[in-house]
Design goal:
The protein has about 450 residues and is of the alpha+beta class. Helices cover about 25% and strands about 35% of the residues. It is globular.
């Protein structure tokens, strides 16, 4: 779909939401509607075989209704005003006493959005065959490089362009935003991979076309299981920014919320030292060029820059508007909905675009100071828990002085530790070294992080 068609469709959807809200009349004191439409199309590949994929627009709509101090919610998967009116009736029938009184957040503040939708990028991948040509170039260049450097047994990956439209409306107004991103991924020999994420139109797609060839050229060939290094106890581990982001989003940020404090899962107050003094962590959805940036949250509040941790000290907690009002805090515009179950999961506080301040140590200097350790590219099975966490490592490298790095045998390495554990020196972020280099993951800008973890 071309840029003009996408922009026009988003505006039309916003107008439909406005008409629906105007038609509610005296049925309810206030109504909030949240709408998200997503599409993704592209190609997956195994070896030299390309397979197209795509799906019709996936629509999620959640409606909340306030009436006489009672709050109700319902949802639908239809962009249909009659279905939305049925949601209002259902919400009124199932409404329960609201924890706080008042209206929904007004969505009347319409500001210029972060550039999370670049019309030029949309136009570049809109023509039929554009994505296929790029995906084919990724495969062709990788296989050509494998002729020069033999040993490639398995090649798989994907290339996809996705578009999301978000609309939030109340009687105070309607806001709409449009988001698009290009995502390329490749995995070699089921043990090592790379990713390419683009929100803005690049001058050339050549770096994406060469992604696999470049990865194969630099990829170590030897695998190492845990027994190969005989590492015991706490081990120095360098977290790639993608692994660091996974840890932050799964284990750290969920505790830096008003809900976590209310539930007794955060044993700190603002001003307490909770991590290494070198860490400053910010949630900033106004960062240009990240797929998670947006002009407003899922309650329609204009986003703001929220410092979560400043020089190691707890600075501010994330909260939805209702949570913030209930606890007398300033709203942080951090409400996010789960698109798979919007009525069962009302907006919850979460981080959007994460930014961590750089450190003083160069990445290669960081690695060169280690005799033995690990470089972890990503985790799987990270679960939020109040005790120690344990996660598998599907991708990473050994760091061994005097010899070339080896690939970590996928899913044979398990790493464990604690996060935000009061007074525990084994806390993952209690003592770290951060790199000067910052890396754009597509949803965060983070440094490499050297810490110490239990390895099995």
């Amino acid at each position: 779909m071309s840029r003009d068609a996408l922009i026009d469709e988003a505006e039309q959807t916003a107008r439909r939401v406005g008409r629906f809200l105007s038609a509610i009349g005296d049925t309810a004191d206030d109504v909030e509607i949240w709408l998200e439409r997503t599409e993704r199309r592209g190609y997956s590949f195994r070896g030299a075989r390309l397979a197209p994929f795509g799906r019709a627009a996936d629509d999620r709509v959640a409606v909340r209704v306030m009436k006489a101090g009672r709050l109700g919610a319902a949802s639908t998967t239809r962009l249909d005003e009659a279905a939305w009116h049925r949601c209002v009736a259902t919400a009124l029938t199932t409404a329960t006493p609201a924890e706080i009184s008042g209206e929904f957040a007004s969505a009347r503040a319409r500001r210029p959005a972060p550039v999370t939708f670049d019309p030029d990028l949309a136009e570049a991948v809109a023509p039929a065959g554009a994505l296929r040509r790029i995906a084919h170039a990724m495969i062709d260049n990788t296989l050509h490089e494998a002729e020069r450097l033999p040993g490639l047994r398995a090649l798989r990956g994907s290339l996809a362009y996705g578009v999301r439209r978000r609309v939030v409306g109340t009687r105070g107004g309607v806001v709409v935003s449009l988001h698009g991103d290009l995502d390329g991924r490749i995995e070699l020999n089921d043990a090592f991979g790379e990713a390419f994420h683009q929100v803005h139109a690049p001058e050339s797609f050549q770096p994406l076309a060469l992604l696999g060839a470049r990865t194969w050229r630099t990829m170590p060939r030897e695998l190492a299981g845990p027994e190969a290094l005989d590492l015991r106890g706490r081990v120095p581990v360098v977290l790639h920014p993608r692994a660091l982001e996974g840890l932050l989003r799964a284990l750290v940020v969920p505790r830096l919320t008003l809900a976590a404090r209310r539930e007794g899962r955060l044993p700190y107050i603002e001003g307490d030292v909770i991590v290494d003094p070198g860490i400053t962590l910010v949630d900033d959805c106004g960062l240009d060029g990240l797929a998670t940036s947006r002009p407003f949250d899922d309650e329609g509040l204009p986003v703001r820059r929220t410092p979560l941790v400043v020089r190691g000290r707890l600075s501010q907690l994330l909260g939805t508007r209702f949570e913030s009002l209930h606890e007398g805090e300033i709203p942080t515009a951090s409400a996010w909905r789960r698109g798979d179950a919007p009525e069962a999961a009302p907006p919850r506080a979460a981080a959007g675009s994460l930014l961590m301040e750089r450190g003083d140590t160069g990445f290669h200097e960081m690695l060169g100071a280690l005799d033995r350790g690990l470089l972890v590219h990503r985790f799987t099975s990270l679960e939020d828990t109040d005790g120690p966490f344990s996660a598998l490592v599907p991708s990473g490298l050994t760091l061994e002085r005097g010899r070339e790095s080896r690939l970590l045998a996928p899913d044979l390495w398990r790493i464990s530790g604690r996060v935000l554990a009061a007074g525990d020196p084994a806390d993952v972020l209690a003592k770290v070294v951060l790199s000067r280099e910052l890396y754009d993951t597509g949803s965060a800008i983070l440094p490499y992080c050297l810490t110490w973890l239990e390895v099995a």
